[in-house]
Amino acid sequence: MAAASAEAAAAAEKLPARGSSLGSSLRLKFYHYKYDHQYFVEDHGGFTRRSELHGLFPAAGPGEHFFRRPPAANRTSGFDISDFIFFDEGSTPPTSFAQFGTGVITPPPATESAYAGQSSGAAYLQVEVVLLVRFVGIYIYVIYMIRAEVERPRTERIAFRMKSEVEIVDDGFRWRKYGKKSVKNSPNPRNYYRCSTEGCSVKKRVERDKDDPSYVITTYEGVHNHMSPGVVYYTTQDAASGRYFVAGCQIPPGSS
DNA sequence: CGCCTTTGACCTGCGC
DNA sequence: GCGCAGGTCAAAGGCG
Ligand SMILES: [Zn+2]
Which of A38, A145, A178, A241 could tie A55 with a disulfide, CB 3.0–4.6 Å? Predict the structure, then answer.
C-alpha cells in the first residue's frame, strides 16, 4: 500500500503542468457518486451555475475492467478521490478526500474565439480534469471531460485611437509580432503582437482606422503579470505583513 | 546567438 | 458542407 502510494506520488510529479496561468480561475468542487456500477464526477458550486457530465470514465483503457467490476459488498464507496492533479501551479493540493474534493482550474484565456457567441456574460467551458483515484490500494489516473457553464472571465481589454503617422509606439513593453491579417473593407492590415516576457500572454493589435486612416487603433488585451522593463520601480516592505509593494516608479535616466 | 519579422498554412466559428 | 473572416502557428530568414 505504501509502495503504491509512493509510486503514485512519483508519477504525479512527472505529470506536466497544463493549461494557461493567465486570467481568473474557475473554482470547481467535485464529488463522486455511484450509479449502475459506474462512477461519475460532478462539479458543484464555485462559479459554476450549471453543469453536466460530459464524459464518463474511459470506455477502454487500463481501467476498463476495474470500472466495470461491481463494488465489493462490504464497501460503501468503490474508490476514494485521493488527490487532484492541478492544472495551474500555485494552487494548494488538498491533503485527502473522502467524498468531496475541491480544485482550482484555470480556464483558457478569454479570447473571442474561446467564448464566441456568448454575450450574456456566461459561457460554456469544457475542461479536462485529471484525477488520481485510489481503489483498494491501486492508484489510477482518470481523465474526465467536464462541461460547465461558467462566468466569462473578465479580460482587461482597452483600445486607444490616436492620430499617428507610425504604428509602432513605445509603450514601455517589448512585443513580438506573431501575425498579420488583412482587414475587411480596409486597405490596411492588422498586426498582432504578444508580450515578449515569458509567461505573460498579453496581446495587442495595431491597425489603422478604416474610416480615417490617419488614426491608429491599438487594442490591448490582458494584464501584464510583470512590470514594465523600461521603468524602475521602488519597492518598500510593509512592516506588518512583510510584503513588498510598489512605492513609486520612475523612467530611468537616459531613456527617451 | 538570441530575439525579432515575415508569411503561408492552419484552425475555428458562423452564415448560407 | 463550403467559404469567409478573424486569429494563431511555426519554419525560415534578418539583424545587431
Ligand atoms: Zn507582459
Answer: A145
